[in-house]
Design a protein that fits this description.
It comes from Alkalimonas collagenimarina. With about 300 residues, this protein is of the alpha/beta class. It has 10 helices and 14 strands. Bound molecules: adenosine-5'-triphosphate (ATP).
Length: about 300
């Protein structure tokens, strides 16, 4: 058995308009991971997800889900996938309960009311089971989309911008659910414009720009490799300028003279923090407080896109 649940190889897609939305994309998604796909508007994320879910025809290349080709073995591969789309695609006159029953049936799964009840409960929709979709609030409709995507017990869940326009509380709730699903072994792929979210929740980060995958890397590794760190030293007494003996460390002195900042490479084993602190002591500078700051995923993302 392969350790990958989704395997995309040499995938290219040109829309009839002539727009090349994907260029030779290779991507392998591991069973049970949470992969966040980041990229600016129009980068090709939705196109990629739609091809994996069998909704858009690939131009060239191949896509397999659990070993099944998304074209040749469409039903087999699609059965394993739950998709939470960006936009609402639900009949407004249907009740909540009927719409999840329908979603389950669509993939040939036998009826299992106890399971569907647990899905609705985990999304705080059980009380609304007899309500029509049009009677739900916007946040509830979004949760219903997730319930529908989970109705047939998929192995892989795609969440395309799940938290766009969603309030903070619901967003928290969604991430809690994503965490629970992952514990059950569900693989989760999400696209988001909220990079702090990806930073918090993802195991790996993929960055897409102009139809190309720029990188796919473990989040921890990416943060360590590209995340500069800063050590900030708050002084007891203001300094008029950085002392000569500390020049080698290229410290930055704040305008009020009370803060020295040392910036170093967070991923390198060879930083000079210890030497710098020794030099501070020899210069007889008294410290009031010390704290560190790490460059965020958002800053890393922006600079990677600029480079590209
Ligand atoms: N059906 C279509 N016909 C022609 N061009 C399309 C079609 N769908 C998408 N595109 C184009 O393909 C490119 C990629 O779009 P896609 O929706 O995949 O991007 P995205 O990364 O999901 O963007 P966003 O973050 O805005 O959702 C865009 O330039 C878009 O205009």
């Amino acid at each position: 058995m392969s350790e990958y649940i989704v395997e995309v190889a040499a995938l290219s897609k040109q829309y009839p308009s002539g727009h090349q939305a994907l260029k030779h994309v290779d991507l392998r998604i591991r069973k049970g991971e949470i992969l966040a796909l980041l990229g600016p508007n129009g980068a090709g994320k939705t196109t990629l997800i739609s091809i994996i879910c069998g909704l858009v025809n690939p131009g060239s290349g191949s896509v397999q889900v659990a070993g099944f080709d998304v074209i040749k073995d469409y039903r087999q591969s699609r059965q394993r996938i739950g998709l939470v789309p960006q936009e609402l695609v639900v009949s407004m006159f249907e009740t909540v309960w009927n719409s999840v029953v329908f979603s389950r049936g669509m993939f040939g799964k036998g009826r299992d009311d106890a399971y569907l009840q647990s899905v609705l409960q985990s999304l705080s929709l059980w009380e609304k089971r007899d309500s029509k979709v049009m009677e739900l609030s916007g946040g509830m409709k979004r949760r219903l989309l997730i319930a529908k995507a989970l109705a047939h017990e998929p192995e892989v869940l795609f969440l395309d911008e799940p938290t766009a326009g969603v309030d903070v509380e619901l967003r928290r709730e969604m991430w809690r659910l994503v965490g629970q699903l992952r514990q059950k072994g569900v693989t989760i792929i999400l696209t988001t414009h909220y990079i702090e979210e990806a930073e918090e929740i993802a195991d790996r980060i993929g960055i897409i720009s102009r139809g190309e995958v720029l990188l796919v890397e473990e989040k921890q590794q990416l943060m360590a490799r590209l995340g500069q760190k800063q050590l900030m030293l708050q002084l007891q007494q203001p300094l008029p300028e950085v002392p000569e003996s500390l020049a080698a460390f290229q410290l930055d002195l704040s305008e009020d003279g009370l803060m020295l900042t040392y910036t170093y490479d967070g991923g390198s084993d060879h930083n000079h923090v210890t030497e710098m602190l020794g030099a501070i002591e020899r210069a007889r500078l008294e410290l009031k407080d010390v704290h560190t700051k790490q460059r965020s995923l958002e800053q890393i993302f922006v600079s990677l896109l600029e480079e590209a």
